User: What shape does this take?
Amino acid sequence: RELFRRGLRYRVDLRVVGRRRVDVVFTRRKVAVFVDGCFWHRCPLHATSPKANAEWWQAKLEGNVARDERTAKELKALGWKVIRVWEHEDPVKAADKVERTVRRLVGG
Assistant: This one.
């Protein structure tokens, strides 16, 4: 919502590479924004590891991180700028980061 309030127009939950989806997409400028959950994407500040079925969870969460890295690499190879935002980040500061990138790519 903060991005929209700033006059930026985007699409949400869009399939860009294979079956993987991007949370916020600026299609004309080729900017992909991922809003990563701390648990599911192993935030270095807030990641936790479940005790029950620990091996399964470790493999699952490591797989998520590996998929994130592959997706970013594939998008970059196609000329996309990839931005990752953690769910715990301040929305205004996160929007600042996205806006700077998008406006830089449009030249103002």
User: Anything to note?
Assistant: Helices lie at 2-5, 54-77, 91-106. The CA atoms of residues 17 and 75 lie 7 Å apart. The chain has three helices and four strands. The first strand starts at residue 11 and ends at 17.
